[in-house]
Write a structure and sequence with these properties.
Layout: H1 3-10, H2 16-34, H3 40-47, H4 51-76, H5 81-100, H6 105-133, H7 139-175, H8 177-191, H9 212-232, H10 235-243, H11 247-274, H12 276-297, H13 301-329, H14 334-362, H15 365-389
Length: 390
């Protein structure tokens, strides 16, 4: 029997301290990933490059996250997973230091590459680690807590980065993340148990596609994220040009989306435990309905604000559902499956936002929202078939 099985079956103790320490890690990771969005102008000016080149720091972190997620299981081998998680946390702190003291654009990009490696490594191990830290019936709750750190960072990263950039400079903003990463490192040292890994790598993560339930499930997951980001990427221009909200109204609606998303991560576990696949299907179905109603009511500020708040609640909670699906479907291969999941999600986000942008520019916003609804409805259908195969 593998170490993972032994841990899951024999360890009824729940290491919630480890879960919350990792959630702090998630917060710093996502804040580090998103912070350049609000700091591109001063970064570009200080490093002597264009804003477009400075923005490539976001692209390189995403690319390295995908590469790391697909290769980590083979590279790490039998390394103790606690040691590996601590290494990723240390890499995150090193990234913050490199970026804060970057003397050139190249050093800045190296720092962004390091955060990409940490993101890919951490998320690919998240489901497998949750299985080791808590009993099976509490895995969805643990993953919801992880995703809560993600949601909170998404809400505060951009405005916090903008504020810190204006008060202490963009370098100071990144430097502020380093002590938080160090706290997360120390907390994990004391709260995580030793997690030996005695399973030899069994080929690449792509071998999991041999299982029909994995193929269909990951396709459903990919269609969901494509549909989500085909619409959500262009919410701001929609609000500015169609709904015609003011600058303060825009900020308030975006904040509402973020707060609703955080609430969604707090309540999703109860729905998943009660009706798992029904919940996975209901989320994209409701989001598709919202996309359709937005086409009809896009000029009404209050209706749009209410609908986007509901969208935020559903969309931010959904990743918890898919990570729980992974933990239930591949309990003995959750680490390799996690790597594959990260790659699928990142690719789907890129495809959805790109396709949405092309349609938005060339056809119109209604077509973009309609395409989003079609993709989300396709995710509902494939999730149904996933449940049948499971």
């Amino acid at each position: 029997m593998s170490t993972l099985s032994q841990t899951t079956q024999s360890n009824e103790r729940a290491y919630w301290g480890g879960i919350f320490a990792m959630t702090l890690c998630v917060f710093v990771l996502i804040a580090s990933e998103c912070m350049p969005v609000s700091l591109l102008t001063p970064i570009a000016h200080d490093l002597g490059v264009t804003e477009g080149l400075a923005g490539q720091g976001i692209a390189i972190s995403g690319a390295l996250a995908v590469l790391t997620s697909l290769s980590l299981t083979r590279i790490a081998g039998n390394m103790n997973r606690k040691t590996l998680l601590l290494g990723m946390t240390a890499l995150m702190a090193a990234s913050g230091l490199l970026i804060a003291f970057a003397s050139s654009y190249l050093v800045y990009m190296v720092g962004r590459a390091l955060i990409g490696i940490a993101i890919g490594g951490f998320w690919s191990m998240s489901a497998a680690t949750a299985i080791r830290l808590v009993p099976q019936h509490q895995v969805s709750r643990a993953l919801a807590i992880f995703n809560g750190g993600n949601a909170l960072a998404t809400v505060v990263a951009a405005p916090l980065g903008s504020y810190l950039g204006a008060t202490i400079g963009w370098r100071g903003a990144f430097l502020c993340l380093v002590p938080v990463a160090m706290i997360a490192f120390i907390w994990q040292c004391f709260s995580l148990p030793m997690m030996e890994n005695d399973r030899a790598a069994q080929g690449t993560v792509l071998r999991l596609f041999r299982q029909p339930v994995v193929r269909v499930g990951l396709l459903a997951c990919g269609l969901f994220f494509m549909g989500q980001f085909a619409l959500f990427t262009y919410v701001r221009p929609f609000l500015e040009t169609v709904t015609q909200v003011s600058a303060s109204g825009l900020s308030l609606i975006l904040l509402t989306i973020g707060i609703a998303g955080f609430i969604g991560t707090l309540i999703i576990a109860a729905f998943l435990n009660a009706r798992f696949y029904q919940t996975l299907m209901a989320i994209p179905l409701l989001m598709a309905i919202i996309a359709g109603v937005l086409i009809l009511t896009g000029h009404s500020v209050w209706i749009v604000a209410l609908l986007l708040g509901l969208w935020g609640l559903l969309a931010t909670a959904a990743p918890t559902g898919w990570w729980t699906w992974l933990a239930r479907t591949l309990p003995e291969d959750a680490e390799a499956g996690g790597g594959l999941m990260v790659a699928v999600i990142q690719l789907s986000i890129a495809l959805g936002s790109t396709a949405g942008g092309m349609v938005f520019d060339n056809v119109g916003w209604q077509s973009t929202f309609g395409m989003s609804a079609i993709l989300l409805l396709s995710a509902v259908v494939l999730t149904f078939f996933t449940a049948r195969k499971r």
